[in-house]
Amino acid sequence: xxxxxxxxxxxxxxxxxxxxxxxxxxxxxxxLAPLLAVLGITQILAAPEDSATGEAxxxxxxxxxxxxxxxxxxxxxxxxxxxxxxxxxxxxQILATAVRTARLARRVDADVIHANSHWSHLECALAGKLxxxxxxxxxxxxxxxxxxxxxxxxxxxxxxASIAVSNDVRDSLPASARSSVTVIANGVDPAEIxxxxxxxxxxxxxxxxxxxxxxxxxxxLDPRKGVQFVIEAVAGLNGExxxxxxxIAGSGSLDPAFAAQxxxxxxxxxxxxxxxxxxxxxxxxxxxxxxxMAMASSLEGMPLGVLEAQSAGLPVVAWPAxxxxxxxxxxxxxxxxxxxxxxxxxxKIAAVLGDDELHDRIAAAGRSNVIANHSLSKQAAEQxxxxxxxxxx
Length: 393
Known about the structure:
By secondary structure, the protein is an alpha/beta fold. The chain has 15 helices and 13 strands. The strands form two sheets. Strands 3-2-1-4-5-6-7 form a seven-stranded parallel beta sheet, sandwiched between helices. The chain is globular, with a radius of gyration of 22 Å.
């Protein structure tokens, strides 16, 4: 007599997301939610009323609750010194938000609290203790050896489980916190972002000269994402590549003045050769229309932009910020430039633009890497296993 298949336990997860805007850490939530639902995991988003993630979540028809989050965060004054008044305010905000989160978790009968943004990590760890609910943290970027990094390490030790998107993210934590962290690499959907011919209309939006080589930078306009160094690298290309164009896709972060600074730099260094595209939702079309993607970030976890470019068959040249060296095997499926060296970044860009065989070979290998190691379905399955492991039977 054939055995009946075991019934999978349905879980309810309260996902706490306080981040502003729709960046990689938020886009992953939106992409993963339908796949987790198929695996028997219902997610309820807890986010501020005006949350961009919340609006996109509701557009998918997914359940959402409002969770008021502090607007002003930080413990240091403008000079960078620890400010006792700000520190006291932050402690009060963490405790108050933890209490609100615990109440919400009990009200929706959550099996797990999932903290997605770094400001929510300690608050959710405390909320889990108050509500008697296991907590899972998602660590999207490297921790730094400052007060916030120490608070994150404490939150990890207080939680039932933590996910790091790369080995580098895990290893950036205090040594005492690393043993409870599971590395689950970011993934993308290779069926959604595929290689293909460039759309002439899209390429015309990206450059004034569609026949010239075209470099793409795709990230938010934040100083630590290094767009300023990509501009410098492209501006200095010479010889047959002196007419190379650069398209920058991404909107400003919490420092709008930086975006204006980038535009001034581009006009000064490469007049007429740089286009700022702002936020774009047609990212697959942009990847297919470019010739190479360049990234000079100093703060990462495992950037979705690199995986998306590889999935689309676009070669990537990057500095080895956290997680990037775990995606790119230098010379095989991309090129790694010496960290901090604009000159080497420029040389690696020139190598891809000047060698069709290299371009095509690493483009094909990048696509294969995504299919084998970084599919969204693989990420969802691994996260589902971890969620079920921390819920009491």
